[in-house]
Amino acid sequence: MLSLALRGMRTRWVTFVGSFVALALGVGLIATTGLALAATFDAPERGTERFAAARVVVQGTDELKADTPIGVRTSKLTSPRAVPEKLADKLATVGPVAEDRTFPVSVPDADRRVGADTALVGHSWAVAAATPYRLTSGRAPAAPGEVVVTTGPGAQVRTGDRIQVVTPGGAGTRTVVGTVPAAGFESAVFFTAAEAARLSPRIDRVTVDADPAAVRAALGTGSGMAVLTGDDRRRADPDPDRDEEALVSVNALLGTAAGITAFVSVFVVASTFTFAVAQRRREFGLLRMAGATPGQVRRMVCAEALVIGVLASAAGCRLGRWAAPRLASWMSGQGIAPAWFRIGEQAWPLHVAFWTGLTVALCGVVVASFRAGRTGPTAALRESAVDSGTMPWSRLLVAAAVLLTGLGLLVTALVENPGDVLKRKTYITQPMLLIVAMALLAPVLVRPLTRLLTWLPARLPGAVGMLARENAAAGVRRTAAVAAPVIITVALACSLMGTTATINEAKATEARTQTRADYVVSAGDAGRALPAGFVRAARAVPGVTVSTSRSTGVTVLEEGTALVRSEARAVSSGRELSEVSRLPVVAGKLTDLDDDSIVVNEEWLTTRVGDRVPVWLGDGRKANLRIAAVLSIGTGNNGVYLTARNAAGAGIDRVDIKVAADADRAAVDRRLRAAGEASGVEVLGAGQWIDAHYPRSSESTRLGLLMILAIALVYTGIALANTLVMATTDRVRDLAALRLTGATKPQVLRLVAVESVMVVAVGAVLGAAVSAVNLLGVRTALGLLDVRSTIVVPWPTVGAVIAASALLAVLAATLPASFALRTRPVELAGMRA
């Protein structure tokens, strides 16, 4: 059987080359994404960065610990406690100390002026000795208005320059008296100790040049302070978990890409192998006529698949090994992954890719091989081009089961928890079952859909439209095999991009509905605060209601075993919040929010107004707060609300301003914008602020989705080309018959092109049907969550995908046909099938 299989492969090399390329590319994509995914499991080992020269660092505890029946559970605090000034004075009796204060600052054109590649922060120069910063020019700041700046690549600032610096105290001009090289982990501006204390009274940490045991003794027990020495000093670095956190998003993205790649590969390879076997019915009939048993035919088909599977999987692993570093480099360059992200030496992704490819190759022909074995000897005598038996009962039952399962899961999610439908994992995986069901049902749907789409072209003058319709309707297997890659590409493009855009639009609509404010001012980057001067100036404007809020968090122990942290907003008062917002309250009243209460949403286990819930605040303090009101879940942005007293350590990062009906709006606008200009912040109308923040995904998310879509499109394009090349080369006798009946070469090529475009249209319609179900599910989920928004269809993306598929289909069909038509029609008609 092996020798017969090898001879058959040599004779029908076009068919087997197409299967080889499809499988090799699929394995290559799995290996590429697998190697990149494996590289996200371990972050690089980093030592202490900022306080490497400090002997001891004292800071507030940044971790919450809770004893549970199954062990100690931990959670990061959003606002670790400050070091009390009395405690800092006490530490000074143990040894030399330096108080560290970190606060947000900004410099116009910071990336050009000082070469900053991260958000700028302010520090006291007094702590510089415990850090890697050393002067490369100038001197230390000695008076108010003098600063030392870090300078990165391309920095244009020099000693003696005067620069505009926005601090928590407002905007002002500072003189650069010294520069230090950028350390890589932050971009900083250093002030004198006195000015830093004025700008940021909070002491974030203290460095102590003393024995750690003496420091612990001075602190005593129950101080809430952490004494950091050795490697633990890294906990005082800026964003010490940034490497792990960066890899979480990369891991999620690559995990999704790997899952979609595996699905697309298995789906298309199985379809390609099945079509390749179905093309050879007459060949199998001749073998049966020559005396081959059904078992021998099956073994020959499986032997062919084994040979192709081994060779293609090995080639795909080699391709993946080559492509993975280039994928990692592109992701780093686009900001999707950290700059240090590199592919390691892991071998297991290659093993997974190889054995997956081989398994897919064998499984892809199992069912087809049984059908091949059942081919009767009389099949060799058939001349009809009409496919028959394309939809056996077994396939129909499997398709119905997959379709009902996909629809059932969607309906179940809508009934039990509509919010789950809006999660990325759900709306990315949800279409998979529907795509499989649509592909399985394609042989049933192709013929009526083809006749529907070609109803008008078939009635136009000329025979091209009618012949294209009849050829596609007669060759159901060929049409279904070509449509399958288009189905998956269109469905993924519309589902991924359309669902994301629809959810973004829903969030924007929800934000517009929930705000009563006329102006919104925010600090921008996470962890930054608005200048206190602007807040005072805004409150001084007559005829306005000002509601300030802070980003914080609360943590609850759910079911006695799990610490769950929720993002929260700490507002000035419930009354002011109710005047500037229109939150979806389902129980209670926002005006009842005070220092002893909390506003929660329906996701919380306890949602009865008046009940008390034990929580840990952002700085680790425990509180037992009364539920004042309950909000609906919405799109997920309806979080928790506290008062400012329960958000110690968090700065004001958002101000909502409502103008009274009888106020002079023009005067209010002038005063607010003047205050913003003096403080270095941008004052936006509520609509402008929502437009700037809501109706868009982050750049990394957008690029990630485009990367996933590009992987699917590239692979689908190759599979589409392979299938059409195999199908067209197998139709040389049909083309010769057309030539013998009087058709010219351009007419035949035009027929082939029109038929290819029509088949792509069939696949696009079926893919659009899958997308419509998915988007309808998202729209229904939003309605159940009381969010009214329109469905956003990414027409440019879907149009580009369909156009690219049509172009590839036309090229893949007409090029081999044009080569075949170079031979005389009489010779083509006499060629063996």
From TrEMBL:
Subcellular location(s) per record: Cell membrane
MF-aspect GO terms: transmembrane transporter activity
One cellular component term from this protein's GO annotations in UniProt: plasma membrane
InterPro entries: ABC3_permease_C, Macrolide_Exporter_MacB
Keywords: Cell membrane, Membrane, Transmembrane, Transmembrane helix
Segments crossing the lipid bilayer: 252-278, 352-373, 393-415, 427-446, 480-498, 703-727, 748-773, 793-815
Domain ABC3 transporter permease C-terminal: 257-376, 707-823
Protein name: Putative ABC transport system permease protein
Pfam families: FtsX
Similarity-based family: Belongs to the ABC-4 integral membrane protein family.
The UniProt record lists the keyword Coiled coil: no
Organism: Streptomyces paradoxus
UniProt topology in membrane: Multi-pass membrane protein
